[in-house]
TrEMBL record:
The chain crosses the membrane at residues 32-51, 71-92. GO terms for cellular component: plasma membrane. The keyword Zinc-finger does not apply. It is a multi-pass membrane protein. Its main location: membrane. This is G protein-coupled receptor. It is found in: Cell membrane. Keywords: Cell membrane, G-protein coupled receptor, Membrane, Receptor, Transducer, Transmembrane, Transmembrane helix. It comes from the Eukaryota. Pfam families: 7tm_1. GO terms for molecular function: tachykinin receptor activity. Gene3D superfamilies: Rhodopsin 7-helix transmembrane proteins.
Length: 112
């Protein structure tokens, strides 16, 4: 799901931005596209981590019963919730700036 999100909601727009060095999609989509990018990376990494832990447990304790459907759904929900929390700062810091000949989408981190 995370990879599909990136390919449909991020790749085309980022390609156009890199090709023309101009962001014509507005500030809202600047924030959303960067959020989706970070969200998909987090969700993919955490999913691979959960799969690795599951495989480790299956090898180390082969006689122990596997996780049930409700536990699996809880793990998936937790992965997405934590990914959203970790990615949410991107919604606050990415913005656009009107330069002389183009508009750029960039992170404007607060000073401090």
């Amino acid at each position: 799901v995370a990879d599909t999100m990136v390919s449909t909601l991020n790749v085309t727009f980022s390609f156009m931005y890199m090709l023309h060095s101009h962001w014509p999609f507005g500030e809202l989509y600047c924030k959303i596209s960067q959020f989706i990018s970070a969200l998909s990376v987090c969700a993919s990494v955490f999913s691979l981590m959960a799969i690795s832990i599951d495989r480790y447990m299956a090898i180390m304790t082969p006689l122990r019963p596997r996780m049930g459907k409700s536990v699996t759904l809880c793990v998936a929900f937790t992965i997405w919730l934590v990914s959203i929390i970790f990615s949410s700062p991107y919604l606050m810091v990415w913005t656009i700036a009107d330069l002389e000949d183009r508009v750029v989408c960039y992170p404007k981190w607060p000073d401090g």
